């Protein structure tokens, strides 16, 4: 009856009764083996904790390096764009001069425009030239259709807004007008 009551008490507490003096039930070899395994487990746990901390540090360092790379890339691009801003400032000043000619302003603006496009191309930006190409929904955005017999149906006949890629990644599709056959 006592055994039943002890079992019943362990069921109430949710724990199994602990064996009395476990070291007495083990032989000296088993005890030494158990202590050796416990030492190895402690060693593995310590190694696990160190490796986990190292992994966290690597993740944090990679995130910092990624942010630094983004900052330095932006810095480099902005340094290339500063002369363009200077040239626009000079063009604005020249346009307000009383003896400013339209031709000299156009020449200056064309020079700034080509300088700007050159910097964008150096940075990997590529314009999408859709004129005369078949409509491709992956890089074009059709904004309307134009009835014409001069171009095959589905061909781009007009560009409304330029599209751009950055190293093969589409940044903005080209907005285009697509040819449509005239109805018979």
Strand content: 15-25%
**Estimated structural class:** alpha+beta
Strand segment count: 6
Average pLDDT value?
Answer: 86
The number of distinct helices, counting runs of at least 4 residues, comes to 4
> Low-confidence spans: pLDDT under 50, at least 5 residues?
1-10
Task: Write the H/E string, N to C.
Answer: HHHHEEEEEE
Report strand order across the widest sheet: 1-4-5
* General form: elongated
Radius of gyration: 38 Å
How many angstroms does the end-to-end distance come to? 104 Å
What level of helicity do the residues show? 55-70%
Largest sheet geometry:
3 strands, antiparallel
Explain how this protein is built.
The protein is α+β, with helices and mostly antiparallel strands and 184 residues long. 57% of the residues lie in helices and 18% in strands. It contains four helices and six strands. It has helices at residues 2-13, 22-25, 28-95, 102-122, and strands at 125-128, 140-147, 156-161, 163-166, 169-172, 174-180. Strand 4 and strand 5 (169-172) form a beta hairpin. It is elongated.
SSE topology sketch:
Blueprint: H1 2-13, H2 22-25, H3 28-95, H4 102-122, E1 125-128, E2 140-147, E3 156-161, E4 163-166, E5 169-172, E6 174-180
Parallel strand pairs: 2-6
Antiparallel strand pairs: 1-4, 3-6, 4-5
Short description:
The chain is α+β, with helices and mostly antiparallel strands.
What labels would you give this structure?
184 residues; single chain; disordered N terminus; 57% helix; alpha+beta
């Amino acid at each position: 009856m006592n055994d039943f009551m002890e079992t019943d008490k362990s069921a109430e507490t949710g724990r199994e009764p602990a064996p009395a003096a476990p070291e007495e039930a083990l032989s000296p070899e088993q005890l030494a083996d158990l202590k050796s395994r416990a030492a190895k487990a402690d060693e593995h746990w310590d190694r696990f904790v160190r490796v986990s901390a190292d992994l966290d540090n690597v993740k944090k360092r990679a995130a910092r390096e990624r942010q630094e790379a983004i900052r330095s890339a932006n810095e480099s691009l902005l340094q290339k764009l500063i002369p363009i801003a200077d040239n626009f400032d000079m063009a604005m000043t020249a346009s307000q001069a009383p003896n400013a000619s339209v031709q000299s302003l156009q020449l200056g603006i064309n020079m700034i425009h080509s300088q700007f496009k050159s910097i964008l191309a150096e940075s990997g930006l590529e314009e999408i030239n859709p004129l005369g190409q078949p409509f491709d929904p992956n890089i074009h955005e059709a904004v309307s259709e134009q009835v014409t017999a001069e171009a095959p149906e589905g061909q781009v006949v007009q560009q409304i807004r330029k599209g751009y890629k950055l190293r093969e990644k589409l940044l903005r599709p080209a907005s285009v007008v697509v040819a449509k056959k005239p109805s018979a």
